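SEVERITY: medium
COMPONENT: batch folding queue
REPORTER: lab tech (J.R.)

DESCRIPTION
The queue accepted two submissions in a row. Attaching both inputs and their returned structure tokens so the on-call engineer can compare them side by side.

ATTACHMENT 1
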Amino acid sequence: MIESRQITLHCTTCRNHKVFNLNMDQVRKVAEGRGLQMQCAYCMVARIWQTSEPVVIEEIDPSISTRAKTILLVDDDDLILRLLQKVLESWDAEIETASNGKDALSKLASRQFDLMICDLQMPEMSGQVLFTHVQDNAFLPAERIPFLTGDKRPEVKEFLDKSGCYFLYKPIQFLEFASQVQAVLANEVKEK
């Protein structure tokens, strides 16, 4: 299971405070008193961030079963798929990839995913058409489908706004990407 916690950190250079969604590896580092290198909006570069408050890691109750999250990455660019996979590989998650919308739809029909990270412009089936099929078949709720796109045309922005999905523009800032994915997964709908 990909666990994350919201922790307030401050930039050690400018003292700016910000709440981050940190994965448990990052939480452990902060709990040990080590800083994390993150982008600072005020300093305009990556800086070391630390916490002012002690961070305590609670023990996980062994009677509570956890399962690894399943993430489907959909992009026709193999380099993007490999980079995204690299960013997510440190998390305890099962990651599958699809190079187009048709391949993704087939994978969504054969198993359940917790999250689908999807490009908008792909051959054979665009992200918009894939999204329509996903919603029609109730494979995933819209809030579990972050989109990636380099297309800033008004009609694309209108689709993204209407979809209810999170989205990031390419080129991807990987710290922002990781934070967004963690936020989406942390905001889980409770399973019955």
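ATTACHMENT 2
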Amino acid sequence: MAEVSPVKEVGIRRAGKNTLPVFSRARRVAFVGMMGALSNILFLASVTVLNWGQVALDLSHMGTLIAGFFGGPLAGSAVGVIAGLGSGLYFGSTSGLMALFLPGFVFGKMLTGLSVGLISRGLGIMGRKRKGLLTLVSTLLGYVPECLFTVFFFMVIIPLFAPPAAASFLVTLLMPILAKAWIEMGLMGFYMAALVGNQGFTNLVSRLWS
């Protein structure tokens, strides 16, 4: 009988149950790290090369979406947290409201990763043959919790804890921010629809997450 590689047999037992092999867990951690790095690189691009004066294209949720669709809600949440660190630190430092913006961005982006992962798993999108339209719709639906939190953040949290002058100015930015965010999510939804329909990309990410 052929022997099975001992590396593939390595597992950790907890409460009498086998968890993922160690090498698979390491690959998943690396995948989350890569998607988090991708999100922050795209955010940096939005404030540099993709910034045209008053207009900046922020595609930083791409890493979050890839993790959510291919890895599920926990992976999406983890990448969302990492993605929120970059934008939270940047806007927190430029506004002088680090204590508000850093946790706000982290929590908001985590919500999108969690929601997209739950919707993707619930609809079984990755197992469907025709999944482009569902991917686009799921991307938009997945942003709804973050959108609602953004409204709460700007209308309640900022007026309560930010200096009055800063709060009155920031509240006026809510509608432009939301309009821009929905446009960006729609654009990223089309990108994701193309990616999940690409067999080569799907196979690559499946190997990374296996």
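NOTES FROM REPORTER
Strands lie at 13-14, 17-18, 51-52, 55-56.
No errors were logged for either attachment.
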